[in-house]
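Structure in, sequence out. Go:
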């Protein structure tokens, strides 16, 4: 089937080009999403009459997409999921989940804009392209973890957290210990607080024998009579 592209389509062509595609691809994707028209003589004339308008609209959409892409560069979203010790998810993360997470971060995107051909089924950091416009795409880091704490570790080490001390890398173990220590400090129950309590207790303990000595009555030794 021949169609006229109404916008740039990856691996097909630019706006205004007449290309051959499979009928199913045209009926299920290009035509319903208004990315193309059937290449009839009538539609060719219609496109030429609207070319200037379509090009102006395309420039406006691209400008807006560039603006949003600037806000999204470096964006990382966290998705909390249950997983086994080896990092295999009990379920999966799909394009809709990622689109919702991006929306929660303050940027509205459609599920169709998230390029995820195969659902994510393991913990870790996954780079996922998001197409904001046919000519504008940005990569989002999807951090899939069991908890917010493990998401922090994964973000800093760049690797999925697995359970079991032998399976953990030394860097992951250090990060986990550091994050837990920070949490203790924030709660006011860290090593510093314990040390201060100990320092305060030691002078009190040292002063106790002196106080006891002062309160103990002095006894006179009986002398020999001359």
């Amino acid at each position: 089937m021949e169609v006229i592209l109404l916008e740039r389509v990856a691996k097909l062509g630019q706006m205004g080009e007449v290309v051959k595609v499979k009928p199913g691809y045209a009926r299920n994707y290009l035509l319903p999403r208004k990315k193309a028209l059937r290449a009839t003589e009538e539609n060719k004339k219609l496109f030429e009459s609207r070319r200037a308008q379509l090009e102006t609209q395309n420039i406006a959409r691209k400008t807006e997409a560039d603006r949003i892409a600037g806000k999204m560069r470096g964006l990382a979203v966290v998705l909390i999921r249950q997983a086994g010790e080896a990092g295999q998810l009990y379920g999966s993360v799909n394009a809709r989940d990622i689109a919702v997470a991006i929306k929660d971060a303050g940027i509205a995107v459609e599920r169709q804009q998230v390029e995820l051909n195969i659902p994510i089924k393991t913990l870790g950091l996954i780079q996922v392209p998001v197409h904001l416009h046919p000519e504008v795409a940005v990569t989002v880091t999807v951090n899939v973890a069991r908890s917010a704490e493990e998401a922090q570790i994964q973000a800093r080490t760049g690797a999925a957290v697995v359970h079991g001390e032998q399976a953990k890398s030394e860097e992951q173990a250090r990060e986990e210990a550091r994050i837990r220590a920070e949490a203790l400090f924030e709660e006011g129950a860290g090593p510093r607080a314990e040390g201060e309590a100990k320092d305060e207790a030691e002078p009190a303990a040292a002063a106790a024998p002196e106080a006891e000595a002062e309160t103990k009555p002095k006894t006179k030794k009986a002398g020999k009579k001359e």
